[in-house]
């Protein structure tokens, strides 16, 4: 009988052929001591050799799975597809460009995998220290994070960090939209979950080029921020308490009779 998957790692990738081999092996080395796991690489419409490289690696790594988006849907869509396909109850994510060091994954997973894990904790969010990006990117990110924190009050310094770990079921209950990954702390808190933060390291990109620029992020960020602020105000504010005991018999049909 195969081992039960303890957790899943989801990595969105677009045109990262030069980074995938080192990243996959780094994840394998970091996660193997934690128990049975799977790594799901989501090829988000790449036009280079990312998919071929992923499939070649999967041939000798049974814990590696490869998904494909026929066209690019963006980072949040790729993460969402990976989480839906995942078999582990706990998910960890990191960016496919290699700037999130895989050796940081155990720090994020530990609070959720612990035997005495707090039942109300659903998200452990990484926050980058010593970012290895251009000055313009760091300044743009700092401004965006400050504005988001002021509007959403999510208590998170760096929501753009790809290193995150969360409970799969809680994530799938969140409203999905493009660029959702940048607002996960606010969305988890909206549903009443606790959030923890972990400082993580960061490293320079070794190959390829970024799929985003500062102008793109600024333009979509304004609309996203308005939409998320609206979602927070329109959250469901009541929870049901069942007063009966569920039965294990057959469910009634449409007329209320037992099938």
Number of strands: 7
Helix/strand/pairing class, anyone?
alpha/beta
Q: What's the CATH H-level superfamily name?
A: Spore Coat Polysaccharide Biosynthesis Protein SpsA, Chain A
Biggest sheet, open or closed, and with what strands and sense?
A: 7 strands, mixed
- The coarse silhouette is globular
CATH architecture: Alpha-Beta Complex
Pfam families: Glycos_transf_2 (PF00535)
Keywords: Cell membrane, Glycosyltransferase, Lipopolysaccharide biosynthesis, Membrane, Transferase, Transmembrane, Transmembrane helix
Domain Glycosyltransferase 2-like: 8-171
InterPro entries: Glyco_trans_2-like, Glycosyltransferase_2, Nucleotide-diphossugar_trans
């Amino acid at each position: 009988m195969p081992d039960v998957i303890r957790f899943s790692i989801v990595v969105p990738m677009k045109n990262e052929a030069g980074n995938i081999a080192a990243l996959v092996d780094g994840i394998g080395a970091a996660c193997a001591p934690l128990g049975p796991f799977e790594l799901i690489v989501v090829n988000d419409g790449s036009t280079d050799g990312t998919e071929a490289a992923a499939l070649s690696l999967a041939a000798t790594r049974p814990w590696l799975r490869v998904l494909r988006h026929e066209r690019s849907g963006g980072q949040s869509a790729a993460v969402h597809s990976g989480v839906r396909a995942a078999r582990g109850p706990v998910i960890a994510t990191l960016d496919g460009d290699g700037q999130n060091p895989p050796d940081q994954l155990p720090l994020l997973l530990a609070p959720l995998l612990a035997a005495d894990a707090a039942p109300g904790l659903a998200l452990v969010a990484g926050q980058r220290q010593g970012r290895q990006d251009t000055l313009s990117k760091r300044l743009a990110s700092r401004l965006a994070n400050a504005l988001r924190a002021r509007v959403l009050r999510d208590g998170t310094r760096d929501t753009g960090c790809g290193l995150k770990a969360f409970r799969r079921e809680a994530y799938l209950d969140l409203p999905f939209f493009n660029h959702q990954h940048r607002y996960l702390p606010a969305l988890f808190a909206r549903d009443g979950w606790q959030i923890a933060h972990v400082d993580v390291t960061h490293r320079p990109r070794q190959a390829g080029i970024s799929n985003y620029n500062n102008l793109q992020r600024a333009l979509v960020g304004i609309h996203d921020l308005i939409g998320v602020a609206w979602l927070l105000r329109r959250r469901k504010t009541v929870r049901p308490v069942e007063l009966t005991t569920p039965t294990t018999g057959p469910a009634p049909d449409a007329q209320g009779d037992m099938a």
